Amino acid sequence: MFMFGSNKIVARLDTMLTDAINGVFTESNYDETQLSRLESKFRQYLTGKEAAGEKVQAERAAIKELVTDISHQTKTPIANICLYTQLLEEASSPETLPLVRQIHQQAEKLEFLIQALTKISRLESHMIQLHPTCQPVCGLVQRSVEEARGRASSRHITSKNTAGDSTIKASFDFKWTQEALGNLLDNAVKYSPEGSLVTVSLQALEMFVSVTVADQGMAVGEEERAQIFERFYRGANARQTEGNGVGLYLTRMILQREGGYIKVSPGKEGGNCFCIYLPKEPLPPAVAPGTQP
After folding, report:
1. Statement to judge: residues 152 and 260 lie in one domain
2. Cβ–Cβ under 8 Å, residues 28 and 39
3. Same domain assignment for residues 138 and 53
4. Which of 66, 152, 248, 265 could link 157 by a cystine bridge, Cβ 3.0 to 4.6 Å?
C-alpha cells in the first residue's frame, strides 16, 4: 500500500513538472492531502515566478524606451554643436581658434560616449542579440586594420597586419566583433608614441582563435590588468590622454556575448599585447550568454 502511494505521488510530481515546463500547469481540486498541499505551493511558486518574469520584461521595456529617447534626443543637438564649431573655426581669430577647437573636440567626445553607453545598455539589457556564425577571421582583421589605418597615419604609426591565413575560422558576429577589435586598434594608436608600430596577428588554438594587437606604448601594470576592463576605469598611464574608459568594457562584453574573452599581457619588447579569443564553434543556445529570459 505504501509503495502504491509513493508511486502515485512520484507520477503526479512528474506530471506537475512536465506541465510546468510546457506552461500548462493547473492545480487540481484542493483537499487536505499532502500531495494537494504540495500542488498548491507549487502553483504559488509558478505564479510568483511568472509575475517576476513579467516585471523583468516591463523593466527591460522601460530601459529600452529610455535608452532610445536619450540616444534620439541628444543626437541632433550634438551634431549641431559639431557643425557650428566647424563653421566657427573658419571665422575665428588666432586667439579664439584653440577654444573653438576645444569645444569641437569635447562635443565629439560626448557624442562617442553617448553612443558607447547606448550600446552597452542595449547589450546589458539583451535588447541587442549577437548572431555568431562560423567564418574566416582574416577578413575581420583586414577590415578593422584598414579602418584604423587613417588614424594611425595621422600619428605616423605603422599598422602591420600579419593575419593572412584565410583557412582559420571562428564563430563570431562580424559587425560587433569588428567594433570590439576596432576599440583595441583605436587604443593602440591613441596610447602609442608617434612613429611606433602596431601589429595584428592571428593564431589558431585548440578551441579558440586568437587575434593579438601588439603596440609599443606604456605597458599596463600587472595590478591593473584586470581592472582596465571595468567600466570607466582608466589606467595610470592613460590618464594624461583623452579617453572615457568604456571601450575595453564594451569590447569585453561583446566577446562574452559570443563565448569569447580578452586578455592583456606585456609585449616581449615593451608595450602591450591585447588578445581576443573567439570560439571555433558556436555556443549551444542553452548556454549562450544573454539567451536567458
Report:
1. yes
2. yes
3. no
4. 152
